Every structure is written in C-alpha cells, then in structure tokens.
Amino acid sequence: MSKIRVAIVGVGNCASSLVQGIHHYGGGDPAGAVGLLHWDLGGFGPGDLDVVAAFDVDRRKVGRDVAEAIFEKPNCTAVFHADVPKLGVPVRMGCVLDGVSEHMDRAPRDRSFRLADALQADFAEVVRVLQESGTEVLVNYLPVGSEAATRFYASCALEAGCAFVNCIPVFIASDREWAQRFEERGLPIVGDDIKAQLGATITHRMLTELFARRGVTIDHTYQLNTGGNTDFLNMMNRDRLASKKESKTEAVQSMTQRRLAEEDIHVGPSDYVAWQNDNKVCFLRMEGRLFGGVPMNLELRLSVEDSPNSAGVAIDAIRCAKLAMQRSQGGVLHSASSAFMKHPPRQISDEEAHRDLEEFIRS
C-alpha cells in the first residue's frame, strides 16, 4: 500500500506523540504491538503515515525539521521514541488568528508560545503547501478555543482537496453547513474533539452507560481534570472553553437514562498544575440511587500521559479518512466520528460505534 500523506496544524504535544508513534510502530511486529486499537486498518499499518507538511507559530519550531520541532519547548510529553529520523519537512509559519490566547505571553518562557517573527501564512500559501506536498489528510491540533483558525484551515483543506481530521472542540464535522461543504467536495471529515484511548471522558461515558444498564439512577456527577501541558495553560482563559465544555458534557449526557439538569453535572477542565507537565489527572464522582432509592456513590482517580493517550486514536482516524478517499466517500465519516470523537454529529453508545467502525473498515 502507498503511504498516507499527512499534514499537521499545531506541532505540540499531541503532534509529538503522533510522529513518535508513527516511527515507533513503523517497522514493528504486530504480535508485539502494545497500545494500538488496530494494527492493520484497511491494509494500512501504523507506520504507513508520512508527514509531508506542518504548520506552527512558535519561534522554536518554525523552520526546524518536524523531527526536531516535536521535542522543542513548550512540548513536555513523554519521549517514548527519541530516534525519529530527519523528515526533510520544515515546520512552516502558520496563520495565528485566535490560535494563541492573549494570556499566554505572561507565562514562563518554557511553558508558553513565543510567536515567530516570520511572515504569517495566508490562505493561498497554506493551500499551495498542501497541494505541492501532496497532502491527503490534514490533522488539526490547534489549541482549544481556536475557532477562527480552525475554520481557516478547514477552508484550506477544502480548497486543496484534503480530508480533515478535527481533533479539537471547534464544531466543524458536527456543524451541518461545514459537513455539507465537505460532502459537496467529495472530501472526508472526521470530528470533532478526539477521545483518548482510555481517558477521562471515555471512562465517564462507559460508567454512565453501566449505571443505565444496571438500573442505577444518576443524580449528580462531576469530572475534574488537572494537567500541566500547554493545553491546560491555554484553557486557563475560560472564554476559550465554551465548546470544550459542551463537547465533554454532551459526551457524558448522551449516555444517561435521563438528561441531568445543568446544575447536576460538571464535566470539564479544572486547573493548571505546571509540574504535572503532560500528565493528566482526572477526579470523577458519580452519585446515584439503587434499588429502593438507596443512595450510592462512586469515586475514581485516573492518571494518564495526556498526548500519547490520543495519538493511537488519531492514527486510526487518519487511516479511516484515507480509506474513505480511496472509496470516493465524502462528507462526515459517521462511524469513525462516533468512535473516535467526543462531539460527533451522531452520539451513540461506544459499543454501537465500535460495531459501526468495524463494519466500515471491512466494507
């Protein structure tokens, strides 16, 4: 099979884990592959992704080879594959728009973005790079709250003829007008807001579904998350959190027997703890009633390395987008979106989404 030509917007921790993972599994043995949802997906292995273009706005990354940029500050995720070879792909200056929150320049130098002096890329330049590099799938890893910037790059994908995998909670796939634009161009889109392999929201969803199956009524629940990566620092600007909170909350609400009142459910990022780096800690509590109305409660603490936790899911989403392109299937990939994203156009149980995904892959 040919390689899948991928471009990345935002060379942060998630991009670092993705690129490391491509090379970590590149020459591996499927029998010894740990942590993958699928080794073979439609004939493509995890090492069959080829990063051919990348965009960022940080002066420590712009102009560097992607293989070097993924280890530059403020990135702080785990290094599980340090031997990423030079790719011959420089990180290009992107378009800032609302991609950087105004409070970021007050953070310590190694923790925050430092804007490059290079001239910002305009629409025509980004489209040119995507076309000349032969990009097939554009992956969006911009910071939470990058509404205008995400729409800018989604428009670039449409113009350049690329599939779009939207890993952040800006609603593109789940917006009817945007979904229709991708369908009309015959281009696949997977979105919005990537689920972790085993993270806070997927765990909360599964427990909520378990409560419903066992006839336990949920009265109150919260999910509180702390972390020390740039994503958590960015989200200290609460004005950027509206879509993130909606995405995470709806992912849990969709699994309840009856929708909880707004004051009875809190799901969302909570605080930035610098020394945690890319480690994310989730505190989850669920209060409910058993037989006879007898009360019960469940408390859980989950600690994960945030960015590798979503990288394997992203590899599968990219491969699904490529499969759809081979099959001339445009528009929202509902099976992949429901399986891999927190805010897909169609919210279904994870069990049903898994069945639909496997059927899509086989077909």
In short:
The protein is α/β, with parallel strands linked by helices and 363 residues long. The chain has eleven helices and eleven strands.
Q: What do these coordinates show?
A:
By secondary structure, the protein is an alpha/beta fold. The chain contains eleven helices and eleven strands. The strands form two sheets. Strands 3-2-1-4-5-6-11 form a seven-stranded parallel beta sheet, sandwiched between helices. A four-stranded mixed beta sheet has the order 8-7-9-10. Helix 3 (123-132) crosses helix 4. The longest helix is centred in the C-terminal third of the chain and has 19 residues, at 308-326. It starts with a strand and ends with a helix.
Q: What order do the helices and strands come in, and which of them pair?
A:
Layout: E1 4-9, H1 13-24, E2 49-56, H2 66-69, E3 91-93, H3 123-132, E4 137-140, H4 147-160, E5 163-166, H5 176-184, E6 188-190, H6 200-213, E7 217-227, H7 230-234, H8 242-253, E8 265-272, E9 279-289, E10 295-305, H9 308-326, E11 331-332, H10 334-340, H11 350-362
Parallel strand pairs: 1-2, 1-4, 2-3, 4-5, 5-6, 6-11, 7-8
Antiparallel strand pairs: 7-9, 9-10
Helix pairs in contact: 1-9, 3-4, 6-8, 10-11
Features:
363 residues, globular, 33% helix, 4-stranded mixed β-sheet
